[in-house]
Amino acid sequence: MKTFKIISLVFTQTLLSLTSFSQSIQSLTINPSNPTTADTIQILATCTFFSGNCDDHTQYYFINGNTIQSGALHCLGVLSVICDATDTFNILPLPSGSYTFIFQVDAGLGPSPCTPGIVAGPTDTLDFVVTPATGQPETDLENSFSITPNPASDHIKVHFHENQEPVKISISNNLGQVICSEILSDSQNNFVKLDINLWPKGIYFVTVFYEKAVLTRRFVKY
Prior knowledge:
By secondary structure, this protein is mainly β. Helices cover 11% and strands 49% of the residues. The protein has two helices and 14 strands. The chain has helices at 2-20, 138-142, and strands at residues 23-31, 41-49, 57-64, 67-76, 83-91, 97-109, 123-130, 145-148, 155-160, 168-173, 178-183, 191-195, 202-209, 214-221. Strand 13 (202-209) and strand 14 form a beta hairpin. The longest helix is centred in the N-terminal third of the chain and has 19 residues, at 2-20. The protein is elongated and about 60 Å long. It starts with a helix and ends with a strand.
């Protein structure tokens, strides 16, 4: 019995060691390389793992001001083979400014949901700048719409302030998933009312598409 316990302990420690030091970040790349306020941004995180298979994973990102915090958890097999994987983050158009993308990769053993190792995985950062879309002055973007109330519990109104007709509006959560999208064909009203009563609490992002520009603002659902 003692021998079994010792072997089990050694095996457990080996697995913990494997899940703690079995991953590395090879590169972070952005597309397009010089994004504007009209672009959906795609960031690719290429990682290497020393235990396969590494395709089973979960990932997330959230935006806090000009910092984008992201991460991925890969659930590995027990085979000692090198596995490469690329995590793709699609970020809706951002307001103009300088941004920092922070990425952390963790690994665990077994199928999803797995538990990451006892040591936090490696991190890497990518700095980039979003510039105003061509033909759209930044001052127009800053005052083009607002969200009331914010924070909100049951509904929001998106008010349009400029003499520009929005053509589409979409709302996404902090994982980048689009919750709703609406084509604005009736320009008689200067606002759009949306029912959010059944949405989970959290941070959401309203993106308004104009003919030559895109602007994103956030609101809180409580």
